[in-house]
Amino acid sequence: MGVYFDNGHEAILGQSNSAAVTSDTMRPLMRMVYTWMTLGLGVTGVIAAVIASQPLTTLISLSGLYLPLILVQLALVIGLSWGINRMSAAFATGMFFVYAVVTGLVVGVIVFAYMFNGVDAKGRAILDLMPVAKAFFTTAGLFGTMTVIGYTTKIDLTRFSTFFLMAGIGFVIAIVVNMFLASSMLSFAISVFGVLLFTGLTAYDTQKIKNMASQASMQENSEEMRKMSIIGALTLYLDFINLFLMLLSLFGRRN
After folding, report:
1. Which neighbouring-strand residues pair with 125?
2. Which of 16, 18, 39, 228 makes the best surface tag, with the fewest CB within 10 Å?
3. pLDDT tens digits, one per residue of 171-222
């Protein structure tokens, strides 16, 4: 199970503005956020599909790179989250797409593991696409619904920031503990909790980005706006990927 939980950009996205918020004032940044997020997910999806289609022997050899790739992912997320104010928009964009590529490599191996359904008489892997399809379409439905809720709700979701932070910390601790326990029951509980956590975070993060989009500095195609659009895209990208992985763990449990 791979998880890419990050809340390091909380201080940036937590900014809000008391000025009146309209669809017109929010449209430029929101459009850029969803454009970058979609492109990032597209890159990850293509890379993951290519990796998952490789021969079993190739994937076994790639699995040895799993931990180094996870460390690279963490370094990229931390670098983007905490160094965004000191880098150019072009460099931040490049880091975002490098992250999308690296994530595709990791997710490709995970997807193959859940699709793998034995080998045929010629030694070729038999793949079952159903768990992946179910996880993807469920993720798309949940993510789309929660972004609409986060964008339109009048409830101030930022008041739940402490809850999401503590839940995220507990979530990561549970995953680390289960690496040693290898408990199937705990793994199931983590997956269920993860679905609930990242479903809620999707609405929460959408509202934070909406608040940020209402700021005067975000109304022009400025360097700051482009950098914040990358941070916003990374936030929602992480929510989508994590939600997909949690659902994939549930739908592919028999594997």
Report:
1. 119
2. 18
3. 999 998 988 888 889 999 999 999 999 999 999 999 999 988 877 666 666 7
